[in-house]
Every structure is written in structure tokens, then in C-alpha cells.
UniProtKB/TrEMBL annotation:
GO terms for cellular component: cytoplasm. It comes from Nonomuraea muscovyensis. It is found in: Cytoplasm. This is 3-methyl-2-oxobutanoate hydroxymethyltransferase. It catalyses: (6R)-5,10-methylene-5,6,7,8-tetrahydrofolate + 3-methyl-2-oxobutanoate + H2O = 2-dehydropantoate + (6S)-5,6,7,8-tetrahydrofolate.
Length: 282
């Protein structure tokens, strides 16, 4: 898409806040205005700077780094120590976005005390502005402990990738009676103090019902158009992922661009066309 075809940033949250970081209060206000807004993942300073300057209000340092950064086949293996330097880089590379860090598998499930210890590391050592964790009623004590300690918490329901082994794979969640359980979980997370909830791979009708029933924003990924915000993994939407999920819309062909550039570089080196005089010091 050419730059002339890209619509200007609209809304107070997306592109409208200058001179300071987006806060959880800004996100709550966007919900009250019925304003939709984008979220992207980021794992390094340079990408974070690009997205920040584009006006993306929330950057998520996802445990998806396990796959797109570290090469694992699920999010389960990634650790706090793996994600801390990535989070710190995103914070340094941005000046406006709210940076949310994922609490990885095994870093919060055992107790509220463990969750607080992990969250404190992300806030103090990496400079994160909020954390995200997966689950509903089973993690309510953790959410309450974090919020009471001053840590903003984003919830995550539906397809929770850290539980992929229990769920039996990457499948749509919330159909039938389980949809009502998801609704209860969402309301419980709101009461526990979560400032937003991610809804992943749930039927669009359910996601819309959850969104209208909550006073906090919902962030959809594979959850249809009825949520308050939408999030994508940046490697998916830029065409780096070989087999993206159905819910992904590709906005670029970075894999193709990199392939063409690498082949052109290799050919120039082989023929002696690079480095040319303009690339050489005298």
C-alpha cells in the first residue's frame, strides 16, 4: 500500500496523544468513546520505534517471542530471563506507547507471590508499564495481588497458548456452554482489577457480547470485529510467518523483500559489483 493510500491516524488514542506515554486511563477513556485502536507485538528497539512513530498506542512484548525470536514451536519454553531484555529494548525504543510484557508460562501460576515477583522484575528491570497473564478464575488471586501492588494487569481468555497442551492444540474456544464460562471469567477479571482483556480465537458473536458486557476494553485476535481493539504479531502481519492463522491479514511481504535483497547482495558480491567505489574509503 502506498503512503498516499494510508488513512491518517484518527482518534484520541491512536495518533492523538503527544508528549507522553499512553496510560491505562487513556485506554479506559477510549472504551467510553467507543474508539477502536490497534496493538502490535514488538521485541526490539528498532521495530518498537517504527510502530511507536506510526502511532500504535500499545506494544505487547509477547511470549510469542518463544517462536518468532527464539525458534521454539510453542510459547511454553520462553522464560522471564528471555523476555526481560526484549522488553527493555522495546521500552527504550519507544517514547509514547504503553508497553505490556507477557508473564511467561511458569512465572505466575503457582502463587500470587510468584506472580508479583515476576511482575516486579519486568517493571523494575525492564521498565514495562503493565503485564499480561493468561487464565480466568484460576488466576484471580494473582491479578488481585498485582493490582493491589500497583501493577496494571491485562488478562487473556479464549485460546491461551500457554495451555495449548491441555486445550489439545490451537483451536477456537468458547463455543456452546464454554462461552458462558468465558463470559464469567471476563467479568471476574474485571472485578479483580484487570484494565483490559485479550480474547483470542473465540466466536465473533461471543467476543462482541463480552465486549458490551464489560466496562474495560477487550482486545481481539481472531475474535471478529466487535472488540474494542485488535492485536497482531508483527511477523504475521508483515508476511514473515510461513503459515499464518486464518485471522491474520498480511499488510506486507517482508519475507519476499528480504529474500530478494539477500539474493541481490549475494549476486553483487559474487560479481564484484559490491562494494562499489561509493561504498569504499580512500
Amino acid at each position: 500500500m502506498s503512503s498516499s493510500a494510508i488513512p491518517p491516524n484518527t482518534g484520541a488514542l491512536y495518533g492523538g496523544i503527544a508528549g507522553r506515554r499512553v496510560t491505562v486511563r487513556d485506554i479506559a477513556a477510549a472504551k467510553e468513546r467507543h474508539e477502536k485502536w490497534p496493538v502490535l507485538t514488538a521485541y526490539d528497539a528498532m521495530t518498537a520505534r517504527v510502530f511507536d512513530e506510526a502511532g500504535i498506542p500499545v506494544l505487547l512484548v509477547g511470549d510469542s517471542a518463544a517462536m518468532v525470536v527464539y525458534g521454539h514451536d510453542s510459547t511454553v519454553p520462553v522464560t522471564v530471563d528471555d523476555l526481560l531484555p526484549l522488553t527493555a529494548a522495546v521500552v527504550r525504543g519507544s517514547s509514547r506507547a504503553l508497553v505490556v510484557a507477557d508473564l511467561p508460562f511458569g512465572s505466575y501460576q503457582s502463587s500470587p507471590e510468584q506472580a508479583l515477583g515476576s511482575a516486579v522484575r519486568f517493571m523494575k528491570e525492564a521498565g514495562a508499564h503493565a503485564v499480561k497473564l493468561e487464565g480466568g478464575r484460576r488466576v484471580l488471586p494473582q491479578v488481585e495481588a498485582l493490582v493491589s501492588a500497583g501493577v496494571p494487569v491485562m488478562g487473556h481468555l479464549g485460546l491461551t497458548p500457554q495451555s495449548v497442551n491441555v486445550l489439545g492444540g490451537y483451536r477456537v474456544q468458547g463455543r456452546g456452554e464454554s462461552g458462558e464460562e468465558l463470559m464469567k471469567d471476563a467479568k471476574d477479571l474485571e472485578r479483580a482489577g484487570a484494565f483490559a482483556v485479550v480474547l483470542e480465537c473465540v466466536p465473533a458473536e461471543l467476543a462482541e457480547r463480552v465486549t458490551t458486557s464489560l466496562s474495560i476494553p477487550t482486545i481481539g485476535i481472531g475474535a471478529g470485529p466487535g472488540t474494542d481493539a485488535q492485536v497482531l504479531v508483527w511477523q504475521d502481519f508483515m508476511g514473515l510467518t510461513p503459515r499464518p492463522a486464518r485471522f491474520v491479514k498480511r499488510y506486507g511481504d517482508l519475507a519476499g523483500d528480504l529474500d530478494r535483497a539477500a539474493r541481490a547482495f549475494a549476486a553483487d558480491v559474487a560479481t564484484g559489483a559490491f562494494p562499489a567505489p561509493e561504498h569504499t574509503y580512500t
